[in-house]
Give the backbone structure.
Amino acid sequence: MNRQLTQRGRDRKRQLMDFAAHRFADNGYHPTSVAEIVSGMGVGKGVFYWYFSSKEELFLEILREAQHELRKVQQQAIGDEPDPVRRIELGIRASMVWLAEHRHLFHVFQFAAADERFAPALRRGQDVAVGDVVRHVKEAVVLGRVRDTDPQVLAHAILGVTNNLARTFIFERGEDAADVAEDAIAFCLHGLVDA
Amino acid sequence: MNRQLTQRGRDRKRQLMDFAAHRFADNGYHPTSVAEIVSGMGVGKGVFYWYFSSKEELFLEILREAQHELRKVQQQAIGDEPDPVRRIELGIRASMVWLAEHRHLFHVFQFAAADERFAPALRRGQDVAVGDVVRHVKEAVVLGRVRDTDPQVLAHAILGVTNNLARTFIFERGEDAADVAEDAIAFCLHGLVDA
DNA sequence: CGCAGCCTTGACCGCGCGGTCAAGAATGGT
DNA sequence: ACCATTCTTGACCGCGCGGTCAAGGCTGCG
């Protein structure tokens, strides 16, 4: 749906995406109906289909935007830090804090992972994140700061730890994002056994 | 649905659960209809509702059974191994191999995680797994084999690594489960930095 | 054989879904 | 004032969903 939108139109679209993202996060993709979204916003159904060609497209747009936001935050946090290991640390911390502040988007990621329809789009964004981490890891290996293992494996392991700790301790138990980030960093650097 | 079933009935139920689990894994929970399941098996709809009171109950039964199976496999693999760190290793390896052989059930776990309706049941099973790992970790800490950190954090981190590496390298890239297990174990024990 | 009860059939139901569209209200440029 | 364009309305559509049920086959026991 590439329409020419006025400022008013762009605002409406934002409202729709934000509201829908929260409904999706609460209910899941399939159980959230278009009727529910528009009635929740107090508008007619036509509004929805003026801005989006389908429910699926809306979800994809939310997903893409969230991935883009998250990556932006990561890159801002990393800045021009020269140490690759510290870059990884900064990335983990920034991700945790952002996820804690946008937990509904974390759930959007989860739903996307569960749906064959959205998994490819999700994977594309995740590959970008993996690529970022892989670059830092490779650099760190060259410097002898990290053991020489397949960087892809290390990158996915890091993402797995970050994801799982965020879900469990931030979302389910309401712990502080910064604290959980420290735990994640410690585990990723040293594992179970101390260095 | 607690009916008195004959052997024939029990076989039918197995068929239904196995077939449905595969359909769910391929399509997701919501997009897989009861009509699709029964027509795929070449039986009438009444058969379905003879053995299950709802589509939701079927899914829950599949989920519970899968969790139970996985735990059984883990415990068998661990046997009476005295070393807590080796117990964790054996658990990871057994889980990876089992997941590789039952990838459709891995997807069932994924869908359960995404649906508010099933998340509690999934969490209950996962808490059992976490509890197992926590016990090994605590023991290992006492022996000085593992650094003294919150065992819950370590357990969830281990599960996160296992999950994510399994999904990426076994399911998406078709790598060998045993090899991926070694990677997961190495990361969990030592992290990025070598010991 | 006859009967009890396990099992199967498939037409049917009501509902709520994603999506459409003719009609008209706002908005803003001239 | 007028018009072009953007935006909004909500009744409506066809469909396929989860679930029901009266009817009848099948099986094994006495």
